[in-house]
Amino acid sequence: MSDPRTPAHEAGDRRPGADAGAPRLGFRTGDIVVVTGAGSGIGAATAAAAAAQGLVVSAWDLDAAALTAVSAAVRAAGGVVDPHVVDVADASAVRAALAGTRSAYGPVRHLVNNAGPSSATELDFDHAVRLCVGSVRSVTQVWLEQAPPGATLVNTASVAGTVVGTASDWYSAAKAAIVGYTRHLAAHRADAVRANAVAPGMVDTPRLQGFAGSPAGQSVLARVPSHRMATPDEIAWPILFLLSPLASYVNGALLVVDGGWTITQ
Hints:
InterPro entries: NAD(P)-bd_dom_sf, Sc_DH/Rdtase_CS, SDR_DHRS6-like, SDR_fam. The chain is α/β, with parallel strands linked by helices. It has eight helices and eight strands; from the N terminus they run H-E-H-E-H-E-E-H-E-H-E-H-E-H-H-E. It is about 40% helix and about 15% strand.
């Protein structure tokens, strides 16, 4: 097995699914990443980019049809994907999916906690916070029970958990709590995992379809120095960097990926 700190292009990359045009981030051949919420948006882009690195992608989502489409795209590109229809709030389903992936491919070294409801969803505050933060903690705890040495994790937070307040009170609160949980892991579970988070701004995903052209969207984008929304790929690659051996001394960080939006507020 190659040294995880050695970039794959130096070691000679011959991994199935590895995209010769993608930057090499030094992931080890055959390592496995779980990506929750992989059926669309940031999760789908992360699954595709991870497969392009030669990682085995255990793709989780509640939407079976979306998961099937993402899995087909990954396989068509030569990647390896292990899809599971999973409700991340269901601990038994989480255990079953992890067990299935381990049985088929081996230990799961990397985790991307990306699943969560849209901020536009009307949810009871207490229920929503338990759902969003509790599921991230539950998935992480179950995964860490059998995570191998060198395990890494990235949680998807949001600028709504840093400086931007959303109309949904639960969304801002939950995303801020996910950042706090990430810092807890970095400070107190560094023996088991290197944990970081990303805080996307506005991303051009199905959840924000049509927003950029709306009056509210135009108003917000006028204050973003980049004057556009991010593509899902532009969030996926920072996630993969934080997971990778190239970020081996990055622990407990929150990487804001918002085109400069929050520095102008």
